[in-house]
């Protein structure tokens, strides 16, 4: 009898959790069109990035899909063109694990585009070994922080001349589990036993938050806004690759609490189009609502120092 009531209580809690997750999903209801606007989305070939790009293309924008893999990038382009009827969608090669590739991509945009109205730094990786890129930076930090930092910096003049324009950084609530260790930004102090991709990922996401705050400070009065967001717990490739043995059994239930890629894209879309956000900058959002940041994540000195260290590591100065 006791065991049965225990089981019932667990099932009821689970159903309530699933209902809570389903009912709190924020959906962007704004129907604003984007004719004449140029939008760049990184990592637009799949998941949240693909859904974000598709929605913005449906609003009439000129879309640049910045992805590493040409085949996947051009396939995504074809799907978006046929779903939206917008032919002004283009694949451009961008490999964030190479700063030379970031520079080449940015130079190509500056040469060929008259404007950039919206830049969405969406691409990110989770499962990554502690290895170095050709730039001698830890591959996780480079893909999730240093490369988007460089890309944004290189495109700033064009974003400023296109103002009002918006920069959107896809972070994650995982930022809360981290703190910046300036002695160990590139995971040099980690060994096989201490390194985990989770630890590395959380630090990169905290870097996205600090970068958003510092960039906001630097952009005051330019008409360019910058905000960051948590897309939610989204059912994408990342989840498919979770390898814990137990996870296989609970996955079908966990899936019910997760967002689809379309739902995960809603906050990025909201930040890109909502007219009421025209002058809103330096904030963190989730489910299409502004959320507070932890006190630690609002430390302006750390944000400023991270900016300066990043500038020197990507050889911007
Ligand atoms: C944003 O600021 C500009 C200039 O101060 C103002 O004209 C505009 O109404 C503001 N927009 C919103 C949505 O508050």
From TrEMBL:
InterPro entries: SDR_fam. The keyword Nucleus does not apply. GO terms for molecular function: oxidoreductase activity. Keywords: Oxidoreductase. The keyword Oxidoreductase applies. This is RDH13. It comes from Manduca sexta.
């Amino acid at each position: 009898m006791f065991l049965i009531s225990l089981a019932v209580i667990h099932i009821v809690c689970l159903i309530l959790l699933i209902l809570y997750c389903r009912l709190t999903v924020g959906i962007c209801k704004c129907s604003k069109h984007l004719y004449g606007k140029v939008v760049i989305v990184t990592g637009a070939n799949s998941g949240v990035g693909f859904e974000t790009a598709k929605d913005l293309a449906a609003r009439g924008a000129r879309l640049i899909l910045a992805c590493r893999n040409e085949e996947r990038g051009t396939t995504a382009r074809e799907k978006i063109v046929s779903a939206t009827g917008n032919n002004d969608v283009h694949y451009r090669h961008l490999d964030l694990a190479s700063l030379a590739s970031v520079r080449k991509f940015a130079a190509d945009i500056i040469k060929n585009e008259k404007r950039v109205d919206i830049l969405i730094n969406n691409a990110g990786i989770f499962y990554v070994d502690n290895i170095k890129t050709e730039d001698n930076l830890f591959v996780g930090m480079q893909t999730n922080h240093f490369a988007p930092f460089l890309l944004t910096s290189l495109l700033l003049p064009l974003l400023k001349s296109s103002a009002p324009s918006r920069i959107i950084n896809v972070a994650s609530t995982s930022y809360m589990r981290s703190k910046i260790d300036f002695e160990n930004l590139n995971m040099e102090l980690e060994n096989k036993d201490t390194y985990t991709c989770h630890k590395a990922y959380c630090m990169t996401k905290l870097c996205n938050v600090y970068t958003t705050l510092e960039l906001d400070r630097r952009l005051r009065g330019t008409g360019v806004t910058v905000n960051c967001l948590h897309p939610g717990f989204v059912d994408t490739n990342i989840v498919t690759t979770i390898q814990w043995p137990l996870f296989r059994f609970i996955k079908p239930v966990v899936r019910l609490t997760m967002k689809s890629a379309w739902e995960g894209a809603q906050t990025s879309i909201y930040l890109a189009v909502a007219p009421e956000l025209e002058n809103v900058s330096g904030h963190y959002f989730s489910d299409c609502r502004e959320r507070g940041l932890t006190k630690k994540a609002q430390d302006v000195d750390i944000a400023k120092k991270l900016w300066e260290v990043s500038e020197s590591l990507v050889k911007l100065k």
